[in-house]
Specification:
By secondary structure, the chain is α+β, with helices and mostly antiparallel strands. It has helices spanning 48-57, 60-69, 71-77, 81-86; strands spanning 3-8, 15-21, 24-30, 44-45. The protein has a 4-stranded antiparallel sheet, with no helix packed on it. A hairpin with a 6-residue loop joins strand 1 and strand 2 (15-21).
């Protein structure tokens, strides 16, 4: 079952939703009925660099993720696959720090 966070701009200019789906962290921009473009089902995975930027800036998204998945899993999600391999960390570490 996915876990979602919805962020709405104060001026109503846009909505972003974040979710944790099968261990992946994804984002989508919600389109309003009058707008054309991507569909509401167009979820994109956040890259390690994007996640690291949220953590560095201590955004609401980073705080939500830290609460939902824990700081260890969030830290691992901020590392790209090559870095994890360089340090001998398994590629799939999702269940290692299960809550």
């Amino acid at each position: 079952m996915p876990v979602n966070l919805r962020l709405e701009a104060a001026d109503g200019s846009g909505i972003e939703e974040y979710r944790i789906q099968d261990g992946d962290i994804e984002v989508r921009r919600v389109q309003f009925a009058g707008e054309r473009g991507r569909s509401d089902d167009d979820w994109q995975p956040l890259t390690p660099r994007q996640l690291a930027a949220h953590v560095q800036d201590n955004t609401v998204v980073a705080q939500w993720l830290r609460h939902r998945i824990g700081w260890r899993r969030l830290l691992l999600a901020c590392s790209d696959q090559q870095t994890l391999q360089n340090f001998g960390t398994e590629g799939n570490v999702r269940d290692r720090f299960a809550a």
